[in-house]
Amino acid sequence: MDTFPSSPPAAVRAELAALRTALDQSGIPPKSLDRNVLVATWNIRGFGKVLDKWDSAAADSPRRNLRDVLCLAEVVARFDVVALQEVKRDLGGLRRLMEALGPNWAWILTDFTRGPAGNQERMAFVFDLRRRPTLGPCGRAG
Asked: Are strands 81-88 and 121-128 parallel, antiparallel or unpaired?
């Protein structure tokens, strides 16, 4: 798999900075590895392939691109565990998201549902590996 370019274009960097500011002001509690566990769900409609470029044109298919993946990563990184809904059979987008999140992140997938009723979608649980539980009294996680 290709890696992200070392530096996104200036417009993408500006958009990410604005997103960070909005997230800081959103009311989501700050993530604190030793004090809280932040869990979220997110229906990322039809999350499958992504374009290997920073912008998408109207005629592009799929429409999601590297900029979109970095924006998704900014949101996901605010939590410890995120259940992503509508992850498609093609895991290109999820793999790119994991690359953007970095080595402290992992994922577990459900099977995708075959046939038209399931639309070949699945759920992905993305989680921060730094949240490994420690055992407290009586062997309970604490």
From this structure: antiparallel
